[in-house]
Amino acid sequence: MEILVWIGAAVSLVGVAGLGWCIVLALRARNSGLPEETVRASLQKVVVYNMAALGISALGLMLVVAGIVLA
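Predicted structure:
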């Protein structure tokens, strides 16, 4: 089950990279100088991406734990 641990670690890293991407998107939106309504709408989209990235990261961690338990 070692392969399950490595797959889970890779999936977790993809999720963490997605979280970093969300940070970059949020900072760009806040520093854009656009009207508040536009910034708010773009930040609401970032929240959706953030939740997806968090879910992917959690799924990867579950795979890691499953690989350790089954080993």
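Summary: The longest helix spans residues 36-70.
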